[in-house]
Write a structure and sequence with these properties.
mainly alpha
Length: 71
């Protein structure tokens, strides 16, 4: 039997954390005021706003519905 190795897992977690830090630093440099931070300076558009709303609702539904279904 082959023993599992945690090295690929830790490499992927490290890459994910580094990429999130790079995106955060880039976004922090581009944002100049509070309006830009909250509403993207009114440049989001309907499609991006709809996707953000869908992902929020989907996440909430999964978080609330899956444990109840499993129970």
């Amino acid at each position: 039997m082959v023993a599992p190795t945690p090295v690929p897992f830790f490499i992927m977690v490290g890459l994910y954390l580094v990429s999130m830090a790079v995106i955060g630093i880039y976004a922090a440099k581009k944002t100049t005021n509070l309006r830009e931070f909250f509403v993207m300076n009114a440049k989001a558009g309907a499609i991006l706003s709809g996707l953000a709303y869908f992902s929020t609702q989907y996440s909430m539904s999964t978080f609330m519905g899956v444990p109840g279904t499993c129970y």
